[in-house]
Amino acid sequence: MAGEPQSDCLFCKIVSGDVPATIVRESDTTVAFRDINPQAPTHVLVIPKVHYPDAASLAAAEPQIAADVLREAGTVATEDMVDGHGYRVVFNTGAGAGQTVFHAHAHVLGGRGLQWPPG
Ligand code: AMP
Ligand code: ZN
């Protein structure tokens, strides 16, 4: 069923606690944890607890939870004190755009200069 945990999904396992992560925030609907291969001083992933393969499918099915992900991304930036200088929220969508984990997630990147456009 849509949104149900997937047994082969790494991020569902982080939600369930079966895979450890450095969790920085949790809400009723989301978990935020540090990326295992950080690309910036602040590199946090914010995920919905429900399983959808990407941000667009999450937003279509569960718009309030998509909003929760965005709110939590902003709070992570504030708590890591990268909001003053500026930070980036990225949803890689599709393998061609670099998505490797097909459970919706926002990357929160900050703490260094960020080029535009991204590569
Ligand atoms: P994406 O390439 O947009 O799908 O992002 C997936 C991200 O998950 C990458 O930045 C990985 O470094 C990160 N990642 C993979 N495994 C883990 C893990 N066990 N804990 C934290 N982050 C992870
Ligand atoms: Zn999942």
Radius of gyration: 14 Å
Average pLDDT metric: 97
- If you consult CATH, what is the topology? HIT family, subunit A
Biggest sheet descriptor: 5 strands, antiparallel
Helix residue percentage: 25-40%
Please provide the ordered H/E string of secondary-structure elements.
HEEEHHEE
Structural class: alpha+beta
Shape: globular
Side-by-side strand order of the widest sheet: 1-2-3-5-4
Give the low-confidence spans: none
The total count of strands amounts to 5
Query: How many helix segments?
Result: 3
Bound molecules: adenosine monophosphate, zinc ion
- In angstroms, what separates the terminal alpha carbons? 35 Å
Give the percentage of residues in beta strands: 15-25%
CATH homologous superfamily (4th level) name: HIT-like
CATH second-level architecture: 2-Layer Sandwich
Q: What assembly state would you assign to the polypeptide chains in this entry?
A: single chain
Describe, in plain words, how this protein is organized in 3D.
- It is a single chain.
- The protein is an alpha+beta fold and 119 residues long.
- The protein has one domain: HIT-like (HIT family, subunit A).
- 26% of the residues lie in helices and 21% in strands.
- The chain contains 3 helices and 5 strands; from the N terminus they run αβββααββ.
- It has a 5-stranded antiparallel sheet, with helices on one face.
- A hairpin with a 7-residue loop joins β2 and β3.
- α2 packs across α3.
- The longest helix is centred in the middle third of the chain and has 17 residues.
- The radius of gyration is 14 Å and the shape is globular.
- It binds adenosine monophosphate and zinc ion.
